[in-house]
Amino acid sequence: MNTPDKALKIAVIGSGPSGFYAAEALLRAGLPLQVDMLERLPTPFGLVRSGVAPDHPKLKEVIKVYDRIARSPGFRFLGNVALGRDVTVAELRAHYHAIILACGAQSDRCMGIPGEDLPGSHTATEFVGWFNGHPDYRDHAFDLGREVAVIVGQGNVAADVCRILAKPVDELRTTDISEHALDALAQSRIREIHIIGRRGPAQARFTPRELRELGEIHQCATLADNRDLRLGERCETELNDLQNGNAAKNCALFREFTANQAGNRRRQIRFHFYLSPSEVLGDSRVEGLRVARNRLEGPAFAQVASATGETTTLNCDLLFRSIGYRGVPIPGLPFDDHRGIVPNAVGRVTDGDHTVPGVYVTGWLKRGPSGVIGTNRADSVETVTHVLADLTQADAVEKPGGDALEALFPARGTRNLSYEEWLQIDEAEIERGRPHGKPREKFTRVRDMLALTGHG
Ligand SMILES: Cc1cc2nc3c(=O)[nH]c(=O)nc-3n(C[C@H](O)[C@H](O)[C@H](O)COP(=O)(O)OP(=O)(O)OC[C@H]3O[C@@H](n4cnc5c(N)ncnc54)[C@H](O)[C@@H]3O)c2cc1C
After folding, report:
1. Pocket-testing residue among 24, 47, 375, ligand 1, by greatest number of atoms within 8 A of Cβ
2. CA distances from residue 384 to 45, 370, 401 in whole angstroms, order as listed
């Protein structure tokens, strides 16, 4: 093994949960290691900062754990440095003994239907990024002066999108939601939100807690049709399975919703099942969604939606699709386009039958968009186990590491930010939020973050 001054140098790409758990596992290994974390934004923490809903602040407390990791000896943050934009895979391989990709799933699955790109049709990523102050989505516009929105997809991200559209804006004012989103939501005229799923209530992917929350929104009626809750034998088999407790709880909630009335509530959320979008309608913007009615086919736990041939139209002005996330290919590395991940064998990146030496992957880019924040810990520990096994077997030569990498940046116009500079941004955001009773007011433009840290 190397001596401490010739520490093994590892680059972790991405500062979301999987990146931090990988860094933690490496630093706990008791080896002489230097871990450099490259992040394309000036700010760390991935979807914990820009995905987790502003009205779920407790979930963001995990940032304290990541902060402790970032302050550990042997850890360095290189913010505002993107693999593929500022550095190449070949350069990283020349500077580090191993590279761990932890870039998450940065894009959305498409519905692949006509009209999908009409104005008024958006991805959940765009909307969530916009209200959470992600710089990529700062200038997106959502016409909330309309009345009817349809959300395609029945998972927790769809629930987040729905809740933010349906909640009284005053309940969001003391969250870390971005100011521009708060201003737009304050003017919102959204009255009806329809959430559609291609299978039935027993297959909806919400967790019961998130679903229950939709039923508790002030001045909002949450509605379902009791005909959709007449479940067949195979669905009942699924609901009776103890491992499938979420589905049984969800169905109990949907049954409660069937008894609700819209009344004179300000807003309504309506669940629709067994529908697959087939066309987004409209000339110059979204005016409706044509949907095909499905029935379920196949055995319990493997039931698939199969078109009945019947179609219907939902009139709407806004469409959000929330049907899953995909990783983005990294130039110079293999990519599984079907699954939207970097192909790997338990974390070792593979190219056909071969492993790519020294390159590893973790988190959503490794396994696809599944699980909760904590799921990424075990996933990263698994990847790091292989990194360490390969490194100890390797006849490690000295590598130049992060100092030499940083020396490349000025000529490229790359301004990398340290963790201390992120802490400056953090402090300024908290200060900006204070007068409004918010935990922070995020900077939403990279140039403002660079200016604040003296890189303007
Ligand atoms: C809208 C939404 C809400 C969610 N809410 C919850 C919740 O309430 N509770 C829960 O448990 N889980 C939630 N999740 C799931 C959770 O966020 C994920 O499990 C977790 O973030 C995945 O971690 P990751 O590190 O793989 O990816 P990410 O968190 O996406 O982190 C990837 C990081 O890599 C960076 N990056 C990407 N490409 C590059 C590049 N080329 N160079 C350098 N850096 C790069 C990105 O900027 C990002 O910081 C939510 C997910 C979404 C999408």
Report:
1. 47
2. 19, 19, 19
- In 3-state terms, what secondary structure has residue 49? helix
Burial of 163 (0-12, 13-18, 19+ CB in 10 A): buried
Which SS3 state, helix, strand or coil, does residue 115 take?
coil
Domains in the chain, CATH or no CATH each: 4-106+326-416 (3.40.50.720), 110-323 (3.50.50.60)
What is the predicted pLDDT for the residue at 6? 73
Can you spell out the DSSP letters for 318-364? EEEE-S-EE----TTS--BTTTTB--EETTEEEETTEEEEEEEE-TH
CA–CA separation, 236 and 241 (whole Å): 9
DSSP 8-state code for residue 243: G
- Residue 434 confidence (pLDDT): 98
What pLDDT score does 276 carry? Answer: 97
Q: Is 108 helix (H, G, I), strand (E, B) or coil?
A: strand
Where the chain has pLDDT below 70, the residues are 1-5, 393-396
Locus of tokens 């590279």: 99
Contacts of 336 (CB under 8 A, 6+ apart): 342, 343
- Burial of residue 187 (number of CB atoms within 10 Å: 0-12, 13-18, 19+): exposed
Residue 395 has what pLDDT? 55
Query: Which residues have any ligand 1 atom within 6 Å of their CB?
Result: 13-19, 38-41, 46-47, 51-52, 56, 59, 82-84, 102-104, 106, 128, 157, 160, 363-364, 371-373, 376
* pLDDT the model gives residue 455: 84
pLDDT at site 391: 87
pLDDT single digits (tens) 309-335: 999 999 999 999 999 999 999 999 999
Q: Is the dihedral of CA 211, 340, 87, 31 positive or negative?
A: positive
Query: Residue 280: which H helix or E strand, with range?
Result: strand 275-281
Query: Which residues is 326 bridged to in the sheet?
Result: 107
